[in-house]
């Protein structure tokens, strides 16, 4: 579970430029920051207003925290800390911070702070691009996903049964600072919510029922002033009859061939479906008869990979050869690779495969105006696009340059 | 001969392209290993490449023949794996990293190219006409009989063995002609290679001594024979070796004391000694003193033998006697040119021609006995047909009419001078035959022959070209239709003409590989053993290396008995999953129900009291799966596993088996001790999990009945307890 580092890289990298001439323009990969063990975030900020949205529509919860922060110190400050429980920190992925006012600008720099490994709380450090002046306000938009955190209950279901997921979180948003006002919205994928925690009356400020329901959205709060690190555990259990596709490892190779003028991409996937297991064995009869109606299922029966336009010669194989059930649609505007695994991947089942394709190198490579250098611009990741999302445990991207490249 | 050595490479280009094309048709599908045995060879090669030669040699494979294991290193023919391992390492040395799979897939086509070359060399030794070698090489390149074993992905011993066979024969002929110890040594070297590569090596070991023996019996002993044979040196060959020494000695004496009668006397004496020693050999073999021959070889002598004694050998389709159409299918017009070629060999009966004659007689017999041995027949058919065809072409494709004068001149020249530049090939041929004319048959003393009319020349040329064209068409058709589809993948056409690939085997194997514990034991009929080992990477009970008949019979018994009998067998062998092949949905006839009788027969061979083939047939002697199937059939594990839950696919009472074209009983079989774990898309592969013992100690039947909520029947309690497997 080193999803954290990976996804952090992912986003700092996205328009990644790797140079064959050797000057690597990207940031060094070591992003862990080590601080003294008695570290505590200095209380220089306070959250004036905070709205957290937990989106449960995908196979992993996505949190979005919009917060107005105020500098209560006398000096300008530029380091904002966000706490996570140490177990949770490992699962945080796609951490991204932007200024709400200028969302089009690139995300802020973020690091993981490492000080005391035994400590139950760990921090993300967000570095503001410009130090915030005393008593000035700024609106941050922090978003992240928590991977592998949803748990099917019951853990084993029948082939045609619905799946229910449990998500545990705190009604109070994680914060290292005093929060004056906040609320937490939970967006469910549907209206079938089997269980949810009802907080005692009077917890919220307006004295109404907590949570408040509005269609498939529940709102916990608003709450008044809370100290740093305040928590209120909440459990929800809701219907989600979709796969929880987890790529435990992905190796992605991009091979640049100057001779062939070709950019060959190969991706090797080790996948497992973390959805509820089958309580009895797989029945082909049921699968065949029900697939006629195309019902919701926890099984992965196909993967759709949008490729860059101009991709050629795709292949889809596994250890024992070509998987004949793939389809490639390619046109002027799109190139879609539709993969059907050899068998439907049910909960707890694994499937390893590799896909690869070629592309004309000239769309990705240009020569520098000065010197012998070349600039290669390729997507950091492609991969299957599923409506319920795909999570990655470990990603390894290799760029193979031509022999003799410096 | 020397000047024509370059020609084949120029002229042969087109031929080679065709060959390349034909063999690579398989790559329409993909780079994949075919069939069953190649999967094992592939796995062994991977082991060799990973662990090195010595550990390969000591390889004890515990993933097969559970719980026995197999001493693989000592029980296989390593020639193939070592060859591809060597190619792999050489390519790596040249810094060309090639996937070992690609080497294995493409090894057979590469070697078939070499075979064509070897055929060229061999034929060129037999005929003075340069066209004969070329034709033979071209025939060899496209003859379906050989392509069947040399398409890409057919990574089997035969792939390299045929090349070695032909090449060894070439070297032997060469050695014999020149009387050279060098060529003899080369023959021995390739002979050794062949022995390491294919069980069919006994063919060479017996053919070469036989040739030597026949030559002696014909009174054609020569120092050349002595040198070449003694240089290259098995059971019967040892006998000939001794004989040769004897003859050598006697000949030596004869040279001192020339006497015609004495010689004849001695020769007949020698033949008698040889026959007596062969007799002793046979006696010893029968008495079991000398390692007896394996059953496969017995079936070569007596085609009925296997059917009666060793059902396991008879159960393999490759070991069936060849049907007549198969000859034409695999060899096309070569088959009727073949006798003509042999006849031509009789006409110029030199030592090497004797070889072709012996080879063709033996190979024809063997090919008739076993489909598989069609492979050894193909080279000699190509050679002989090429001899015949080149003879015709050389006679008919000469533009100028022959004249009697030139013929007489030639004749006198040939008689007076021993060598001379030949003007035309046909003349040379005639000359060659005329020089030996005095020794050979009278009919071979050829008079002046030649074709005067250009009309007949033209018509023959047209007819021959038509035949050749048809042959090429036939080969292409056969190859692309019969030999190019890897049997793990079935291809069909959708109504709209697009290709639809049925890939159930690999679907199931991949499922096994991914979703079962790494040490799971899979029981299946032995046909699928190698594939499960190679593709699913799981331990199997039996596989295609059918060395232990009893173990196979155990699997056969488990499949053909009632659940109560089978379950203890499964438990005793740690079986986790049982795999069956069922073609009923698709109409795939190569399924386990159709192979079932062999399982029954093999099991009956070991447990005649417990498994009886008769009980699987109805009173009228029919093998049925419908309502009228016998109780033994309906209760057998195989039947239950094949048809379990099959009814659910159809409206009630409408279940049909498309292979056997029969309507199934309204109520499907019930399984107590196994549960369905996976069924592939088209139901070809069905995998069952063996249930663990019941938690509360009930027997499985009552546990299932309880689950279903049905009342415990009185009969269940009265039923006898599960029979215990007799363990030897």
Automatic annotation (TrEMBL), chain A:
Q: What is this protein called?
A: Dolichyl-diphosphooligosaccharide--protein glycosyltransferase subunit 1
Q: Which GO terms describe its biological process?
A: protein N-linked glycosylation via asparagine
Where does the record say this protein resides? Endoplasmic reticulum membrane
Location of region: Disordered: 199-218
The family database entries (Pfam families) matched by this protein are listed as: Ribophorin_I
Which pathway features in its UniProt record? Protein modification; protein glycosylation
Write down the InterPro entries for this protein, in alphabetical order.
Ribophorin_I
The UniProt subunit note reads as follows: Component of the oligosaccharyltransferase (OST) complex.
The family line of this record is: Belongs to the OST1 family.
Name the UniProt key words of this record, in alphabetical order. Endoplasmic reticulum, Membrane, Signal, Transmembrane, Transmembrane helix
Q: Which domain of life is it from?
A: Eukaryota
Statement: the UniProt record of this protein carries the keyword Metal-binding: no
Q: Which organism is it from?
A: Trichoglossum hirsutum
What does the function comment of this entry state? Subunit of the oligosaccharyl transferase (OST) complex that catalyzes the initial transfer of a defined glycan (Glc(3)Man(9)GlcNAc(2) in eukaryotes) from the lipid carrier dolichol-pyrophosphate to an asparagine residue within an Asn-X-Ser/Thr consensus motif in nascent polypeptide chains, the first step in protein N-glycosylation. N-glycosylation occurs cotranslationally and the complex associates with the Sec61 complex at the channel-forming translocon complex that mediates protein translocation across the endoplasmic reticulum (ER). All subunits are required for a maximal enzyme activity.
Species classification: Eukaryota, Fungi, Dikarya, Ascomycota, Pezizomycotina
UniProt topology in membrane: Single-pass type I membrane protein
Signal sequence span is 1-19
List the GO cellular component terms.
oligosaccharyltransferase complex
Q: Is the Transmembrane helix keyword given for this protein?
A: yes
TrEMBL record, chain B:
Membrane-protein topology: Multi-pass membrane protein
Give a GO molecular function annotation for the protein. dolichyl-diphosphooligosaccharide-protein glycotransferase activity
Q: Where is the STT3/PglB/AglB core domain?
A: 522-571
Major site of localization recorded for this protein: endoplasmic reticulum
Question: Where is the protein localized?
Answer: Endoplasmic reticulum membrane
Alphabetized UniProt keyword annotations: Endoplasmic reticulum, Glycoprotein, Glycosyltransferase, Magnesium, Manganese, Membrane, Metal-binding, Transferase, Transmembrane, Transmembrane helix
List residues traversing the bilayer: 75-91, 103-123, 129-147, 159-175, 265-291, 326-346, 353-371, 377-399, 458-479
Tell me the cofactors it needs. Mn(2+); Mg(2+)
Provide GO CC annotations from the record.
oligosaccharyltransferase complex
Q: What is this protein called?
A: Dolichyl-diphosphooligosaccharide--protein glycosyltransferase subunit STT3
Species, as recorded: Trichoglossum hirsutum
